[in-house]
Each structure stands twice: as structure tokens, then as C-alpha cells.
Amino acid sequence: MQALRATFLVLTLALSACTPSRSAIPDPNAPLPPATSSDDLLPVTLHIHPLTRFGSSNGQPVIIAHLELRDRFNQNSRALGRVRLQVRGNNSAPSGFDAETDSPSDSTWHIDLSTPGRNAEFFDDLITRTYVLTIGDLPAWLVERFNPTTASVSAPTLSADFLFSDSAGQMRTISDSAHLSR
Prior knowledge:
Elements: H1 2-18, E1 45-48, E2 53-57, E3 60-70, E4 76-77, E5 81-88, E6 108-113, H2 116-122, E7 123-124, E8 130-135, H3 140-146, E9 157-165, E10 171-179
């Protein structure tokens, strides 16, 4: 019985410590800071999520890029901005890159996420909490990497940059890179 009383006392004290006191509840009429006054919730890191891969859409090879933004508290974040994705082979220039038929822009894509509607369209808030970008019209050298018969070829590298502005209007860029796989 003594142990039961002690357990009850400990649980009561623990619950009271988790419950805010009346004096800790903020004044509901106190003014709130303006939304643009703090950059605390803006992203500070970009991660190419492990779900990023080669895939197919309507029988055509695509890159399915999952980009995760995190704030200074290491929590998932969202922001209005632009994404630049670039794919390179394992050298500084893409492997199989032919200067006469391919242009450098063939392996670079720009996605505008600067309007709230478009931003929300690409954000998967239900499962992955990432921006999901499906990139098609891949250059020939990259499609060759997608082909399962050339699996011995090393995986290309995907680089992602997220460009956005802070509350002072200063442009910021956060970046990450990862190897692409099937």
C-alpha cells in the first residue's frame, strides 16, 4: 500500500509540473510580433532526402527529388523561393556529355516555388514533409545511367540549391548534394 501511495504522489507531482500555472498563461490580448520580424523559422539547411531516386512516369525516365528544408531548431520548414537542381557525372563535367549535342542546361532545372499556391502544390505534408519534384526530359547521357543494363556505371550526383529571401530582403542559398540511384 505504501508503494502505491508513493507512486500516486510521484505521478501527481509529475503531472502538476507539466501543467502550466495560471501565471504562466500569456495574456491573450498581448500584441504578437509581426510575421516578418523574425527569421527563426526560415530554413537553414537543405537535405536531399533518401527517397530521391530515378523513377519513371508514363514509361519515361524521371528523377524524383525529395527536398527537405529544416529550420534552426532542426524542424521541417517551408519557405517561398526557387530550386535549382543539377546532375553531374562523377567528374566535374557530366560523363557522356557531348558538347555538340548537349548543352550545360540539359542537366540543370529551375523550379519556381515562390508563390504560396505553387509552393503548396509540391509539398508533401501528409507523409514525407518534403518538396517532391519530378524532373523529366532527361538528357541522353543521364537516361543511359537510368538504364538497368548499365548498372556498373557509377551513380551521378544530384546537387540542389534553394534560394529564398529573409525578412531583411537578403537573398540566401542553402545547398546539398547526393548520389542518385534507382
